[in-house]
Amino acid sequence: MTLPDALDCFAASYAEARAKFQLAVARAEGQLSTYVHPSARGPDGGSLAIDVACFGPADAARAFLIVSGTHGGEGYTGSAAQIALLGTGALARLPGDTRVVLLHAINPYGFAHRTRTTENNVDLNRNFVDFSARLPRNDAYLEIHDAICPRDWSDASRAAAQRELDAWIASHGQQAWMQAIMAGQYDEPTGLNYGGRAPEWSRSTLETVVQRHLPAVRKLAFIDWHTGLGQPGQPFFLCFNGYRDESWERVCEWWGRARIETAEGYGGAQRPTYSGLIFHGVQRLVAPAQMAGAVIEFGTLPVSEAYEQLRIDRWLKFGRPDGDAERRAGLRRGVRDAFTPPDPGWRRGVVEHAVSIQRQALAGMAAW
Ligand SMILES: [Zn+2]
Question: How far away, in angstroms, is 311 Cα from ligand 1 center?
Fold first, then answer.
C-alpha cells in the first residue's frame, strides 16, 4: 500500500482544500453531497459549504463518521487526514454492511477564515446543548472575561491582564482555571468558547447529514479531528464515552489503552467538563445506536501558548484596532501556524498517524 504524499494532502486555503477533497472522493469513487451555507462567505468572497463523501451501502448498520474543521483553523489537518485516507484505497474495499461518511469542513466559515469559531463567533464544539433547557453557567469565566479579552493587545494591557489572571489562578487553582477557560460559556457573545444561543447552521447541517446519510446505523465509529492539545506532532485522544463502559473498552482495543487513558494534555490539570460537544450531539442523534470514538488532537504548542493564540484570534475580531496593519498580519500568521504548523516534518508525521488511526478503527469495526 503506497500512501499519498502527505504534504500534498494539506491545502493553503479553504477553496484548495475543497478541491483536493472533491478530487480524492471522485478518484475513490465515493458519492459526494454538498451543503452550501446560505449566507456566510470566505475572505475572498467565495461561497462556503460542507462536503460529504459516502462509501458503502446507505442501509448499512455499521458506519464510521469522520469530521474535520469543527474548530475552523484546525481543519487543514483534519482535511489532510481525510484526503490521505481517501488516497489509500481502503474505502473502495469496505467489508459488507459497512458505510463510511467523511464530513469535510463542518465549520466552513472558520476553516476559510482560519479562525476557531463559526460566522457567529460560536465555538461549534460547545453548541450541541439543549437550547430549550437552562443553559450551562460558567460564572468563573465571567469573572475573568475582561482580562482574557482585553480591548487592546499591547504590552501594557497584556501585562495588566496577566497580573489579574495570575491572581485569579493563585486563589482558585489550576483546575478551576482550566474549567473556566475551556468548559464553554453562554453569556459573552464576543468571548472565548462561546456556545451560542441557538443551534448553528453547521450543527443543523450535521443533523441533516446523519439523518440522510446514516439512516440505518446501529454501530457508529466516530472521529472528530482537531489540533492544539498534546505533544507536538503526536495524537492526543479525548474519548467521551463513559469511563470504561463497553464503547470505551472498544476504543481502547482499536487505539490502545495507554493512549485513551492518559492523564496528560492540559498542562498538569485534569480534563475539564465540557458543555455542548459535537461528540455528545452525534451520540444523542444516533441513539439508540452505539457510538464509540474520540476527539483526536495533534499537538502543536504547549497549552498556555495555544490559549494565547486563541486570545489573539479573538482580539483580531473584536479588539480595538491599533492601526498597525503589519502587526495584525503578523498576529494572524501566528494564529494560523499555531493550529496548522507549516513544518513539513510535523505534517508528514500527523498524516501518517492519522491514516493509521483511521485504519485501526476500520479494522476494529469489521470485528464489531
Ligand atoms: Zn479543536
Answer: 14
Amino acid type, 30: G
pLDDT tens, position by position, 44-98: 999 999 999 999 999 999 999 999 999 999 999 999 999 999 999 999 989 989 9
- What is the distance between the alpha carbons of residues 249 and 49, in angstroms, rounded to a whole number? 35
Phi and psi torsions of 50, nearest 5°: -100, 125
- Going from the Cα of 226 to the center of ligand 1, the distance in angstroms, rounded, reads 4
Q: Residue type at 110?
A: G
Query: How far, in Å, from the CA of 116 to the mean position of ligand 1?
Result: 7
- How many A from CA of 95 to the centre of ligand 1? 31
| Torsion sign, CA atoms 220, 225, 226, 231 | positive
CA of 320 to the centre of ligand 1 (A): 26
Question: How far, in Å, are 48, 124, 145, 267, 350 from residue 192 at the CA level?
Answer: 23, 12, 8, 19, 27
Residues sharing a CB contact under 8 Å with residue 315, sequence separation 6 or more, in sequence order: 149, 150, 153, 331
* Residue 312 to residue 294: CA distance in whole angstroms: 28
Tally Cβ neighbours within 10 Å of residue 290. 18
Q: What is the pTM of this model?
A: 0.97
Ligand 1 centroid from CA 59, angstroms = 31
Owner of C-alpha cell 496577566: 162
CB 239 within 8 A of CB 293: yes
Q: Write the pLDDT tens digit of every residue in 145-181.
A: 999 999 999 999 999 999 999 999 999 999 999 999 9
**CA 27 → CA 52, 79, 98, 151, 295, distances in Å?**
15, 16, 20, 49, 27
Averaged pLDDT score across all residues of the chain? 95
The 10s digit of each residue's pLDDT in 274-318 is 999 999 999 999 999 999 999 999 999 998 999 999 999 999 999
